[in-house]
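Entry type: protein chain
Record version: 2
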Amino acid sequence: MSAARVALRERFGLEAFRPYQEEALRAVLEGRDVVLTLPTGHGKSLVYQLPAVVLEGLTLVVSPLIALMEDQVAALQARGLRAAALHSLQEGRVRAATLDKARAGAFDLLYVTPERFRVEAFVAAIADLGVVRLVVDEAHCIAAWGHDFRPDYSRLGEYRRLLGDVPTLASTATAPLRVVDAIVTSLRLSNPHIVRAGIERPELFFAVREVEDREQRIEALVERCRSIDGPGIVYTALIKDLEELHVEFARRGLETLVYHGKLGADERRAMQERFTKSERSVVLATNAFGMGIDKSDIRFVLHAQIPRTLEAWTQEVGRAGRDGAPSLCELYYFEEDLAIQQSFVDWANPSLEYLLLVYETLHSWGERVQTKDLDDLRSELLVKNRHDNRVAICLRWLEVLGAVEGSFEQHDLRVVRDFDARELPAWLATGEKRDHDLRALLEMLRFAKQRDRCRRVVLAEHFGLAREETLESQFPCGRCDVCASTEDFVRTTFSERASALVEARDEDARFARGDWVVVDGRHRGQVLRVEGRGRRLRLLVQDARDLETRLVDPRRQRVRRLDEA
């Protein structure tokens, strides 16, 4: 561990390990398989990045999101560490060059998505890469019982065998015992050292507030954002609700950032950068926002709608207060929102019959499939709601099992062999996962509704982290709405916002999607899209009078936001 301590200081600029890090690090350095569950922001990445620096050989890191791995690689390279990523958004020549460098030993860390193991060129190169450790990030994606299951993750046990069953670290922020067991079994880990921690962070205050209607929820969210002067995140389940909140906040003089899937990649990146650099910004976001955000001073995380699982809620609220200062984590429960999450469960769990229908449709198209796209397939199957993800999930399973190859995006999708339903996991064929997901939603509901027991006790029991009698002796905790007053905590801990919700925008980012603007002092409308920056900045504005859309150049036309003086 002496070399690790030197590297901790000299390569990572840190003086000491955080709780649980040293224990996990020691096991990794000894060459053991390790399962690590640490809350968001507690330094899981260091547990594999530091050994990759001090030990010989290549550490292969499997990560679910390309944007996340690129951020991690950029941060490592900024410290002078030898890291690279390999993914589908890179040009072919870039991927080939990166693979050649990896063969030559140019990297200590190589990040890939699990889908990379379905690429023949990568599989062929594995023997030459000198991989000595495998890291599975966001390991809950392995388990059907995890809150973000990915079919490709379920094959990582087979892919690990291709690597020679090298020592493996599986890490995640949240995992009940059933998920930990599934991770160990799926990866075929040998006598793994298991390190588990919950949200043992006294700086976080957990609260739930029940509201009677949408208007009361909006007023409560506005009131809460005004009462805490610092950066914050407000999560919503649906984009339309997020956009409604953005407009309603603006009407009340509170400016917010927005982040969701309908934004372009440049817009999402700009929103993330502005939030990261800001001292007071609040972002309205779907659950796509937050993973990989390097911001320690988030003072509150509010959920405008009930999340689908306690695991998802725990991961998202864990983004608050990483600097150790007090932070509020509050859920606004409105009974009608439960139907939204019930629909999400249905749309995330296709039946066996539905999967067979997807396969038969693709097969019936023959060569015409390469002229089609995902929307054509959804239309063929009478899928009308854009949140219904069953078609995409079925397509992913067919890809993972090798029944189809290529993609709609590249116009080279094709059926390559007959599909046998017996190849599917039993839980998918029987609907067991759907039943589990509904039970998980019920657990989230019970957590939101209960007012009898300390929320930290309930969470610790849910994740199987301590015995009830041990927990009860430590509470009332004084850091949840069952054990203390939320309003007293807010009033005695935070100062109110003095004026605008976020700092004044810079010249290039003074307009955002959803803003209400006045053009040339006469035309009032809403910004539908922001294009370009600087001298190329353009706004696509929908006129409130005739609903016509017009492209506006702020340098040629006088444009002001309605909330400007």
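Comment: Confidence is low (pLDDT under 50) at residues 500-507.
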